[in-house]
Protein: Serine acetyltransferase
Organism: Flavobacterium lipolyticum
Amino acid sequence: MNLFQLIKSDYRKYRKYGGHFFVIVFFTQGFWATFQYRIAHYIYTNIAWKLFRLPLLFSTLMWQKTIEILTGISIASSVKIGHSFYVGHFGGIIINAKAIIGDNCNISQGVTIGVSGHGEKRGTPILGNNVYIGANAVVAGKITIGNNVLIGACSMVKDSLPENAVAMGVPAVIISQNGSKGYI
């Protein structure tokens, strides 16, 4: 997908949850952060000529920091995020620069997707498609989260999860195979 299509897919996702153009564009902090990320990621991955790349990356970094201060949402330009990404609520969201997030994913407030582990197990998560992460959850380490996974609020995920898993707790354990259907 090109930049415009990605932004449009994100916007459609916000519309799905009941927002109108004016509300989404001017009052929805999650959309601001996602929009800024899309522009910064495009520059990060597509502009190679240093004469343009460095000033543009610096300006998008300043824009990112402004969005981060206003919204409490930190998404680095190097993160890989698929289409139809949705940040449900304001604040406390940190996504590590090396994280990979699939298509059609939702995250709630207070979510951290970060680095953890020692030696060969040190790294960042790879999230599949249609993943829902509840409020204040932490997903950390060199793990893979399968497609259609639901991670419950206040959970700490440190191990990989198979497709369609529903996981909760600290540390998170699989409580069912009902997946994220109905939450996305």
The chain is about 35% helix and 20% strand. Residues 1-73 form one domain. The chain has a mean pLDDT of 95.
